[in-house]
């Protein structure tokens, strides 16, 4: 369902109709990789701030290794492997 299942929250953002999959694919294709790095760094900083605000003594770290995958690899893998 993807974004179609989130229509109510999208309407609150002023988005009347759910964006088409091809629109999102085009946008991601033309989006610079630095954007994702910036978003990740902001999220990491927010997590670290939350841990510190709750009196955490250790610095926030992810439990498992993080891996970034291009979404096209998912469709390719699903079509090649059960």
In words, what does this structure look like?
The chain has 82 residues and is mostly helical. It folds into two domains: 1-31, no CATH class; 33-82, no CATH class. Helix content is 55%, strand content 0%. The chain has helices at residues 7-12, 21-29, 33-53, 72-80. The relative contact order is 0.06.
Order of helices and strands: HHHH
Supply the number of structural domains. 2
Distance between the termini: 21 Å
Low-confidence stretches: none
- Quick one: how many beta strands? 0
Query: What is the CA-atom radius of gyration, in angstroms?
Result: 17 Å
- Which class of secondary structure composition applies to the elements? mainly alpha
Shape: extended
If helices are DSSP runs of H or I spanning 4 or more residues, what is the number of helices?
4
Summarize the biggest pleated sheet. none
Secondary structure: helix percent = 40-55%
Explain briefly what this protein structure is.
The protein is mainly alpha-helical and 82 residues long.
Summarize the helices and strands and which ones pair or pack.
Elements: H1 7-12, H2 21-29, H3 33-53, H4 72-80
List keywords for this structure.
82 residues; mainly alpha; 4 helices; 0% strand
